[in-house]
């Protein structure tokens, strides 16, 4: 009985060390993903990359870069419900903080030649998420991306 108890304790420690991180998951080991958006010379609109995979429990900084002369949107739709948003961060070109916005966010609109960072941790899996720009005509011009949470 005593041996069984020790084994159970070792097993529990092993699981705790291997499968679960401790502390603040939204700040540990943040992985940066760059999402560029713009318009090609042919008039096609894009997100690059247009196929994204995220993992539950991994903290991300989605670095959204609008390379265009016009504004665009990054709308997560239903994926918003599957992530914990820590903050949206806006800085000047000189990297001075303009704003940190906290709370659940569905969509971010980004001005011409601006960047915005979206800090989040996926908390539920999802197979068929879609990131899109909902400005009229932009989706049809190609401004959407497939996303999944594993
Ligand atoms: Cu757009």
Q: What value does the Rg take, in angstroms?
A: 19 Å
Ligand inventory reads: copper (II) ion
Main sheet record: 6 strands, mixed
Bulk shape: globular
What's the rounded overall pLDDT mean? 89
Uncertain spans: 1-18
Strand line-up of the largest beta sheet: 2-1-4-9-6-7
Helix content: 10-25%
The ordered string of helix (H) and strand (E) elements is: HEEEEEEEEEEE
Query: SS-based structural class?
Result: mainly beta
Enumerate how many helices there are, as a single number.
1
Count of individual beta strands? 11
Gap between N and C termini, in Å?
39 Å
- Estimate the strand proportion: 35-45%
Report on this structure.
The chain is mainly beta. The protein is 12% helix and 45% strand. The strands form 3 sheets. A 6-stranded mixed β-sheet has the order 2-1-4-9-6-7, with no helix packed on it. The N terminus is likely disordered. Bound molecules: copper (II) ion (CU). The site of copper (II) ion (CU) has 7 residues, from strand 5.
């Amino acid at each position: 009985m005593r041996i069984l108890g020790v084994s159970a304790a070792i097993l529990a420690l092993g699981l705790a060390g291997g499968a679960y991180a401790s502390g603040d998951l939204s700040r540990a080991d943040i992985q940066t993903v760059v999402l560029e958006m713009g318009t090609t010379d042919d008039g096609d609109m894009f997100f690059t990359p247009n196929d994204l995979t995220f993992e539950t429990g991994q903290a991300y900084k989605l670095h959204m870069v609008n390379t265009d002369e016009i504004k665009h949107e990054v709308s997560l739709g239903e994926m918003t419900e599957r992530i914990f948003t820590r903050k949206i961060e806006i800085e000047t070109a000189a990297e001075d903080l303009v704003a940190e916005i906290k709370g659940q966010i569905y969509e971010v609109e980004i001005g011409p030649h601006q960047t915005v960072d979206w800090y989040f941790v996926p908390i539920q899996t999802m197979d068929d998420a879609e990131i899109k720009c909902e400005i009229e005509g932009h989706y049809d011009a190609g401004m959407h991306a497939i996303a999944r949470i594993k």
